[in-house]
Design brief:
With 288 residues, this protein is an alpha+beta fold. The chain has 2 domains: 6-159, Roll (2,3-Dihydroxybiphenyl 1,2-Dioxygenase, domain 1), CATH 3.10.180.10; 171-287, 2,3-Dihydroxybiphenyl 1,2-Dioxygenase, domain 1. The chain is 21% helix and 36% strand. It contains 7 helices and 17 strands. It has helices at 16-25, 73-83, 97-106, 156-159, 188-195, 221-228, 252-261, and strands spanning 6-12, 34-35, 40-46, 51-57, 86-93, 110-111, 115-122, 128-139, 147-153, 171-181, 201-203, 206-210, 215-219, 240-249, 267-269, 272-275, 284-287. The strands form 2 sheets. Strands 1, 2, 3, 4, 5, 6, 7, 8 and 9 form a 9-stranded mixed beta sheet that branches. Strands 11-12-13-10-14-17-16-15 form an 8-stranded mixed beta sheet, with helices on both faces.
């Protein structure tokens, strides 16, 4: 089984323009708005090999419904927004979609039909280049409220931009993805298959899986509140929530200064400087 690092997280919001302005106030460089042919729109925050996809619904009339074994990215995120804003999908990097599919099927997971697409991307200097992606969607039966897939970037040289990866707040990369759930042990089989990492560390605070890019923390709400100094997202019995992103920064004091100047709320917590989810479009950002 191939070990996979985090590729990106989809952060779904009702007001895409307002969320993009929020991230810019927090000191991030945000890419121009891009449009998908299936009705969604996005902005990206590029880090070191990982990115945040800030997603909104652009034209609901263009969203196709899922049919048979197809997965509808647009319909899934439209339906997610009926319940809440926040991180809707976790995405792992892929070098070989066929190998991903084989690994998931061997683990007994439901894998959807392959999906590929391309579009044009605008670079900071205005140049237009082609980008393309191969996606392998997989279902977590223990957490149907969230989406999961691997993503192979066919033209990384056209996608990544050193300018877009340079942020005024000094953030450089992903440290962790934090998922709150009632029973972390019940999730370990799925996440071992998704990440390709069989080894994990279990403590009284939950389960940690190290990946080639970032670590995954699975923890109960009580552990989240203790470590991150803010209330955990509300979850139904047996449910989960993608609660926080841990982000590496060159200087945490610099981040604090940016947030204070922008009048954005944050708290100091054992795991870092935390912008709570409740005030910030449903996802906590943790600067470490």
């Amino acid at each position: 089984m191939t070990a996979r690092g985090f590729d990106h997280v989809v952060w779904t919001v009702r007001d895409l323009a307002a969320a993009a302005r929020f991230l810019e106030r927090a000191g991030f460089r945000v890419t121009p708005r891009a449009r998908h042919p299936w009705g969604t729109e996005n902005h990206l925050v590029q880090l070191d090999g990982f990115f945040i996809e800030l997603l909104g619904i652009g034209d609901a009339a263009l969203i196709p419904e899922a049919v048979g074994n197809t997965f509808s990215f647009g319909a899934f995120n439209r339906d997610f927004l009926k319940a809440r804003e926040g991180a809707s999908m976790v995405v792992m990097e892929s070098r070989d979609p066929a190998a991903d599919r084989h690994d998931f099927e061997r683990a007994g997971l439901h894998v959807y039909a392959p999906f590929s697409f391309g579009r044009e991307a605008r670079l900071p200097d205005g140049e237009i280049r082609k980008v393309g992606f191969d996606l392998t969607f997989v279902r977590n039966d223990s957490d149907p409220a969230h989406g999961f897939f691997t993503c192979r970037n066919r033209y990384p040289e056209n996608f990544w931009s050193a300018e877009y990866q340079t942020h005024p707040n000094g953030v450089t990369g992903l440290e962790s993805v934090v998922i709150v759930c009632d029973e972390p042990a019940e999730q370990h089989i799925f996440y071992a298959a998704l990440t390709g990492q069989r080894e994990m560390r279990a403590t009284s605070l939950g389960i940690t899986i190290e990946t080639p890019r970032g670590r995954l923390h699975l923890m109960p709400p009580s552990a989240f509140a203790a470590l991150y100094g803010s209330e955990a997202p509300a979850i139904a019995p047996g449910g989960s929530a993608i609660a926080a992103l841990g982000l590496r920064t060159r200087d945490r004091a610099r981040v604090a200064g940016v947030l204070e100047e922008a009048s954005l709320d944050f708290v100091e917590a054992p795991e870092g400087l935390v912008m709570p989810a409740g005030d910030h479009f449903g996802l906590a950002l943790v600067f470490v």
